[in-house]
Amino acid sequence: MDFDSTDGDALTAEVETEDGTVYAAYNERDHGSTGPFFVAYNDAERTERYGYVCGACGSLGVSMDAMGRVECTDCANSRKPMNWDAAYL
Predict the structure, then answer these.
(1) How far apart are CA 19 and CA 41, in angstroms?
(2) Measured distance CA(87)–CA(89) in Å, rounded
(3) What is the 3-state secondary structure of 48-63?
(4) Within 10 A of 36 (CB to CB), how many other CB atoms are there?
(5) 7-17 in b/e burial notation, b at 16+ Cβ within 10 A?
(6) pLDDT, tens digit, for every residue of 55-87?
(7) How much is the pLDDT for 85?
C-alpha cells in the first residue's frame, strides 16, 4: 500500500475484499506500532464506515476490542487504547 502525504483529502485506489470494494482514506489514520491504520469506507463519499486497512501490510484483517485497542491479525501491527480508566478493571 503506497502512502503519499501530499494527497490531502484523496482516497486511495479501490481495495478489493471478499464482500466487494472498499475505499481507504489516507488522511484519516491512527498510528500503529509498525505502520498507520487507515480508515476504510464502503463508498467513495465516506458515508458508510467499513473498518481499517493496515498500513504496514495492506490487510483488512484489523480488529478493535471494547477498550479501543486496534490490531492487525496478519502482521501484529497494533495501537494501544488512547484513554482508559484503571478503575474500570
Answers:
(1) 12
(2) 5
(3) CEEEEEECCCCCCCEE
(4) 19
(5) eeeebbeebee
(6) 999 899 999 988 889 999 999 999 987 666 666
(7) 61
